[in-house]
Amino acid sequence: MAAYETSAAAPFGAITVYRFVQTLAEGSEAFRRWNSARVTRKALHRLSNRELDDIGLCRGDIEMIGR
User: Helix, strand, or coil here: 42?
Assistant: First the structure.
């Protein structure tokens, strides 16, 4: 019976490139989440107290929602 080697070492630098790309992807995702929260907070700050009350919020809740 013949045996085949199915695992091989990664080429030189492949892990470094993978980690770099992964770091960029994580940074991009963090930026996307931050920007989404910023836009939400900005939109909520534009609402009047009456409008906020209609959706069950007060001014103090806006910062907590953005997080």
Answer: helix
pLDDT at 3 over 80: no
Residue 2 confidence (pLDDT): 64
At which residue do the structure tokens 């700050």 appear?
A: 45
The sign of the torsion formed by the CA atoms of 20, 24, 29, 31 equals positive
Q: What is the model's pTM?
A: 0.67
Q: Is 27 exposed, middle or buried (0-12, 13-18, 19+ CB in 10 A)?
A: exposed
Average pLDDT (5-21) is 82
What is the distance between the alpha carbons of residues 11 and 2, in angstroms, rounded to a whole number? 26
Burial of 26 (0-12, 13-18, 19+ CB in 10 A): exposed
For the chain, domain boundaries:
14-66
